[in-house]
Design a protein that fits this description.
This protein is of the alpha+beta class and about 425 residues long. The protein contains 11 helices and 17 strands. The protein is about 25% helix and about 25% strand. Strands 4-8-9-13-12-11-10 form a 7-stranded mixed sheet. A 4-stranded antiparallel sheet has the order 15-16-14-17. Strand 6 and strand 7 form a beta hairpin.
Length: about 425
């Protein structure tokens, strides 16, 4: 629940008060954060905090989350007959930069930390960019097997499959020496760890190759079973080697969908340094993360990511199923015609400090703030450098389409003019009309 701007107690009945961006502070989810030179969160983004689509019964994202939960609950049973994996889907999206980056061994100069790619409340606090921000604290609390779901926030391009707020689900599983080798003959003679080892593409320095191969097999087997459960027995799966700062070796799983290979999740053997820092240094683990929107768009044939935020009953009622396992294919609402306008401008000069004074994500964010859900796509059409002055200009095409009604030319023209004006006053560009 959110605080009111006067700092009164959270209201538990009725709609929560809206978050507030003040001159000196940002108030969200019952706390106030001082603003500084890193603050870049917008009112439109803060409006989404607390919506928790993944926890709204019968929402398509809730359906996917519940199906994944049901699979893990039924497939993995603990020694006493209880579910092996616990589920955490209510953790606050407001995290420290230490949680979001440092706890996951993301180096200080890593590009993923850039202000242009994230929503910062201030230099030390942000809206989480991935649910992995909570991995260390959950392992530290003594959990060996858990699923985690939540909303995550990233400044990004604008098209049918990208939105600044989306939802992730991830899983973590830790193993003791006995659990890894219990089914291996003479397994008691084997160890998770080895002294003086070297990091190779197959394993980390401290891990034994035997342990890593068994954990990797368990990870891939677990995820293949999950995707088969979601997509059906005839789904084709392949594994691609990749890199993440917090796992090694790391993999992406791709499924063949409508003739193309599509990446659906990332995973790997957890970096031992991360596990050690969470107080579980005698264990070895795996982790995976997937995007709920991506799965829902594929499984339910939802064509545009903006639809997940729709309040339109024609959309929502299609997912009110008596049984979460019942297949459903989204029947499109009427496809309303798009309207598009172009915007061209000269970019501002580089700042004296050499810091980039304009980034594409800044422009996308401004278009989102002004145009909101009316904007379907923004694409860079043309770039030009003046041969004499060296000044650079860019031209973007903005496609407008409402999900629930037909837009008028006049309505779009007014919004487009607001975007032109805001780009000049807020981003320091100079229009070319």
């Amino acid at each position: 629940h959110l605080w009111t701007s006067s700092g009164s107690l959270p209201i538990t009945d009725g709609p929560a008060p809206r978050p507030v961006i003040g001159q000196d502070s940002v108030e969200v989810l019952g706390a106030s954060y001082p603003r500084d030179d890193f603050t870049n969160v917008t009112a439109k983004i803060l409006d989404k905090v607390g919506r928790n689509l993944h926890n709204q019964p019968h929402h398509p994202l809730w359906l996917i989350k519940e199906r994944i939960k049901a699979h893990f609950y039924s497939s993995y049973i603990g020694r006493w007959g209880n579910p092996l994996f616990s589920v955490h889907d209510n953790l606050s999206p407001v995290v420290s930069t230490e949680q979001n980056f440092d706890s996951l061994l993301i180096p200080p100069d890593h590009p993923s930390r850039k202000r242009g790619d994230n929503y910062y409340l201030n230099r030390t606090t942000m809206l989480r960019a991935h649910t992995s921000a909570h991995q260390r604290e959950l392992v530290r609390s003594g959990l060996d097997a858990f699923l985690l779901a939540g909303d995550v926030y990233r400044r990004d391009e604008i098209d049918a499959s990208h939105y600044p707020v989306f939802h992730q689900m991830e899983g973590v599983r830790l193993f003791t020496n006995h659990e890894v080798f219990s089914k291996v003959q003479d397994g008691h003679e084997l160890s998770l760890f080895e002294a003086g080892g070297r990091r190779t593409p197959q394993k980390q320095e401290t891990h034994s190759l035997e342990a890593v191969k068994l954990v990797e097999f368990d990870l891939k087997n677990t995820l293949t079973r999950l995707i088969t459960y979601l997509f059906g027995d005839d789904v084709e799966v392949r594994w691609v080697d990749c890199y993440f700062p917090f796992t090694h070796p790391s993999f992406e799983m791709e499924v063949r969908f409508q003739g193309d290979w599509m990446e659906v999740l990332g995973c790997g053997v957890m970096e031992q340094e991360l596990v050690n820092s969470a107080g579980a240094g005698h264990k070895l683990g795996w982790a995976f993360g997937l995007g709920l929107e991506r799965l829902a768009m594929v499984l339910y044939s939802i064509p545009d990511i903006r639809l997940f935020w729709s309040q339109d009953e024609r959309f929502l009622q299609q997912f009110r199923l008596p049984d979460i396992q019942q297949p459903v294919t989204f029947q499109p609402l009427s496809k309303y015609p798009p309207l598009h306008n172009d915007i061209s401008f000269w970019l501002p000069e580089e700042s004296e400090a050499g810091r980039e004074s304009f980034t594409q994500n800044d422009f996308y964010e401004l278009v989102r703030s002004v145009g909101g859900e009316l904007v379907e796509r923004v694409s860079l059409q043309d770039e030009f450098t003046h041969p004499r002055t060296g000044r650079r200009s860019q031209c973007y095409r903005i496609v407008y389409r409402h999900m629930e009604r037909t837009l008028t030319q006049d309505e779009v023209r007014r919004v487009h003019q607001q975007i032109e004006h805001a780009a000049e006053t807020e981003l320091g560009v100079q229009g070319r009309y």
